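Quick one: structure for this chain?
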Amino acid sequence: MKPPLFRYHDPASVAEAVALLASTDNAKLLAGGQSLMPMLNMRLVLPDDLIDLNRIDTLAHVRENGDVLEIGAMTRQRELERSAVVRARCPLLTAAIEHVGHQQTRNRGTLGGSLCHLDPSAELVAAAMTLDAVVSVTGRGGERKIPFAQFPQSYMTPAIAPDELVIAVSLPLWGRGHGHAFLEFARRHGDFAVCAVAVMLEKNAAGAITRAAITVAGLDAAPVRVAAAERALLGQAPSEALFRAAAEHCRELDAVGDVHAPAAYRQHLAAVLAKRALAEAAARCH
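Got it. Here's what it folds into:
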């Protein structure tokens, strides 16, 4: 199929892009295009205007700023995958990206594009939820920051206004020596996950878990932090029994069924993957 007719714009600055958004009623932003272009071709979206962000160089960067990693919205996934800074300071993001599509799609796909598309099974969305990311957006009303827990408004709908665009994502960095794991089950490599689990752990000198973050993706309209499982781990020494008990909380999560898997199977996968991910993350703690 062919995309619908639209007016094409290629702004060279954020200010120009914001002005275009403010002057159009039915516009779409083009970042990497790995989701938008198929949707255009299948006529699932019918914009009057297409605003291409690829000439705005200031939106592509990776910066370590103290205890925060700041990533520009137009930073390519392949750049993040290869980044020594990301691998050293935020290895969960590297692990998640390795499951995203294929190398060809990662060459074009962007961090901001994936987060705004907000597919409930998307690996980068799950990683952002686990890392307590903060999304910076700007529009006619100026710049504002959105904690990622508040970013999913509903199914594939981010909490940004029609005249706003994402400019950067800030990731609070965990302490050196933390453990991480990202596991998923997909029908084929490169497919969206039927279920994915991301885990971060920190231990103290005595070996007890002092901090935990567990996110499950693919079950419902958005990834969800498993708060009950996180609380169950705190102050405890890592063990197979502890991880099994904590992972069982994943069976209590809301889940939907579809042609790929029934809800009960997704809940089962979440518990199995969470137990494995917890053990893997704990083994990486030092």
